[in-house]
Design a protein that fits this description.
By secondary structure, this protein is an all-alpha fold. The chain has one domain: Up-down Bundle (Growth Hormone, Chain: A), CATH 1.20.1250.20. It is built from 18 helices and no strands. Helix 4 runs antiparallel to helix 17, helix 8 packs antiparallel against helix 17 and helix 9 runs antiparallel to helix 16. The longest helix is centred in the N-terminal third of the chain and has 30 residues. The relative contact order is 0.14. About 4% of the residues have low confidence.
């Protein structure tokens, strides 16, 4: 008969050697997708947003050229229709995704070497060539990633998962923005941008290594084999196409001014990089909170209904610029960016869920391609026209470029949201 001491020892051994609860493959894949986003958000923050605008101004770009660069990436979304057709030949997607992601990251990161290799007169043209090449590759990798992630994340947790993932990544993005702004203020000009690119190159290496940990589930192909029959599926879906056309029109208005916020602050209002970064951080913090809120609401309400709720917030962000006529600059811009964070964060997350959640799985790549092509073309025209308008109103009264254009766009957005938007999204 065992003594009480022996029994205690046996139980201790059993506890020590008790097998740990195994983490499911599905949970591991979701964790991988979240960790992969960490270096991705660092490089996207340091190479995009206000820092992209600042780097272009450092290279000598004009407002119309800034508008073109901000817009051209969305134009390439038109290519997704061809990509959606061609990837039907793939059995697995991971290898192709890694190849095109590598091309995107390398070409984008190489833009930081331009001042060290080329004479100054070539800086802007070479940047545009490398940048366009990077985002043509991103068109392919983005399509493959969206298709793959939609298979990795179960539909029942999709809204909440992306809400949590986006919250975490945007918290990191806010910190990165703040640090990047401090770096550029302390080391103005080329030295500061070199530091940002060095950090980005490290993030690129880390990001690419994470993609090798992604799963590679078999690709469920379309039931159609002909291109015309394949593209006819989304075009004949009345609810889908009506929503897509409205959202494209909305994005055209939104991108007339929102992508040029940084340009207006840096070149029109002459605000420092650190202040611009703080504004963007405030936007990101609100966006971060919004991701969680919108994700939870998505469990109760449809994607289209919630998309409609984001419209007044985005319009309010543009309207807030009108307060510059009576209030100090900083509080007005802070309010505008907070409204933008709440609205655009929800809009982007819900539009993504709309693409991967409200579409048939086997036809999803073509549905995504049609949505991205239509909205992408509209989002290309917006910043292009917005950049030209800013250039054209340079000689107008000061208030026009400071807040008049932004306020006029905001008024138009409110009217469209309350009329067309209500009929299309609330009735869908």
């Amino acid at each position: 008969m065992k003594t009480s001491k022996e029994c205690i020892n046996i139980k201790a051994v059993q506890v020590i050697h008790k097998p740990r609860k195994q983490v499911s493959h599905q949970r591991k894949h979701l964790m991988t997708a979240t960790w992969e986003g960490v270096p991705a958000i660092i490089l996207q923050t340091l190479l995009g947003g206000p820092f992209l605008t600042g780097y272009l101004l450092y290279l000598g770009a004009e407002s119309s050229e800034v508008g073109f660069v901000l817009a051209v990436t969305t134009l390439f979304n038109v290519l997704q229709i061809l990509v959606a057709y061609l990837i039907q030949r793939l059995q697995y997607r991971k290898k192709a995704m890694i190849v095109f992601t590598f091309m995107h990251r390398m070409l984008w990161g190489a833009t930081g070497l331009i001042p060290f290799i080329f004479p100054e007169r070539w800086w802007v043209p070479v940047f545009m060539i490398l940048y366009m090449g990077a985002f043509i590759a991103n068109t392919v990798s983005g399509m493959l990633w969206t298709s793959l992630i939609s298979d990795m994340v179960p539909a029942k947790v999709r809204g909440r998962y992306f809400g949590i993932r986006n919250t975490i990544l945007n918290a990191l993005g806010a910190l990165t923005l703040f640090v990047g702004g401090i770096i550029l203020d302390r080391y103005p000009g080329g030295e500061g941008f070199l530091i940002l690119f060095m950090i980005s190159w490290i993030a690129i290496a880390a990001n690419l290594s994470m993609f090798f940990l992604y799963p590679d589930p078999p690709f469920e192909h379309s039931s159609e084999r002909q291109f015309r029959a394949m593209i006819r599926k989304p075009l004949s879906d009345t609810t889908f196409i009506k929503s897509t056309l409205f959202l494209a029109g909305w994005l055209f208005l939104q991108t007339l001014i929102v992508p040029l916020y940084s340009y207006a602050m840096l070149d029109v209002l002459h605000i420092s990089y650190s202040i611009v970064s703080i504004m963007t951080v405030a936007q990101t913090v609100i966006m971060m909170i919004g991701f969680y809120v919108w994700g939870n609401l998505n469990a109760r309400f449809s994607n289209r209904t919630l998309l409609y709720w984001t419209l007044p917030l985005i319009a309010g962000s543009c309207l807030a610029w009108g307060l510059l006529s009576v209030l100090p600059v900083i509080p007005v811009l802070l309010l505008s960016h907070m409204l933008l964070g709440a609205g655009v964060g929800g809009f982007n997350q819900l539009a993504f869920n709309f693409m991967i959640g409200d579409t048939p799985k086997s036809e999803r790549p073509m549905f995504i391609a049609v949505y991205s092509s239509i909205t992408g073309f509209a989002s290309f025209l917006g910043p292009m026209l917005g950049g030209l308008i800013f250039k054209g109103i340079a000689q107008a009264p000061d208030w026009v470029s400071r807040y008049g254009f932004q306020t006029a766009v905001g008024v138009l957005m409110v009217l469209i949201a309350l009329t067309v938007g209500r009929r299309v999204l609330r009735s869908a």
